[in-house]
Design a protein that fits this description.
Its EC number is 5.1.99.1. The chain is of the alpha+beta class. The protein has three helices and eight strands; from the N terminus they run E-H-E-E-E-H-E-H-E-E-E. The longest helix has 11 residues. The termini are close together.
C-alpha cells in the first residue's frame, strides 16, 4: 500500500531488548521524561514504548526464553535489538531490497506491534544491524 503523501524514510523506532520492563521503564519515563505510548505485545515479547520526538523507543521483554528476544538476550545480553525505518511503500521497498541482493527475513509483510505492516531484513545484508521496515 502506497502512502498518498510521501514522507520519505525516517526512523520509526529503536527496539531495545531488556530483561525487565519494570526495572528499566522508570529510567526512560520518569528520569528522561519520555511519555509512554501504548503498544500491543508481539512476537513473543512484552512491549512498552516511550516517545522520543517523532520516533519511539520500544522496550522488549521476552515472554519465553525461546522467543526471538529471549534468544537475543541469552546470546548478547540487553541492548539495541533493531532499528525500524518507516517507508512510504513497504512492498516497493522490499522489492527494491531484494533486487539489490538484500536478504529478507520476511518475504511478505506481517502485522507488527503498532498494528502496521512490517518486514525484517537480515543483519548479514545490513552491516550487522537487524533492520525492520514499517509502513507509516
Amino acid at each position: 500500500m502506497t502512502n498518498p503523501t510521501p514522507r520519505g524514510t525516517r526512523i520509526a523506532h529503536l527496539g531495545i531488548a531488556v530483561e525487565s520492563l519494570d526495572a528499566i521503564l522508570p529510567f526512560y519515563r520518569d528520569i528522561l521524561g519520555m511519555p509512554e505510548t501504548p503498544l500491543d505485545d508481539a512476537d513473543g515479547a512484552r512491549i512498552k514504548a516511550v516517545a522520543a520526538g517523532e520516533s519511539l523507543v520500544e522496550l522488549l521483554q521476552p515472554e519465553k526464553s525461546d522467543s526471538p528476544i529471549g534468544k537475543f538476550l541469552a546470546k548478547r545480553g540487553p541492548g539495541i535489538h533493531h532499528i525500524c525505518f518507516a517507508v512510504d511503500d513497504l512492498d516497493g521497498m522490499l522489492a527494491r531490497c531484494k533486487a539489490h541482493g538484500i536478504q529478507l527475513i520476511d518475504e511478505t509483510p506481517r502485522i507488527g506491534a503498532e498494528g502496521k505492516r512490517i518486514a525484517f531484513l537480515h543483519p548479514k545484508s545490513t552491516a550487522g544491524v537487524l533492520v525492520e521496515l514499517s509502513e507509516y
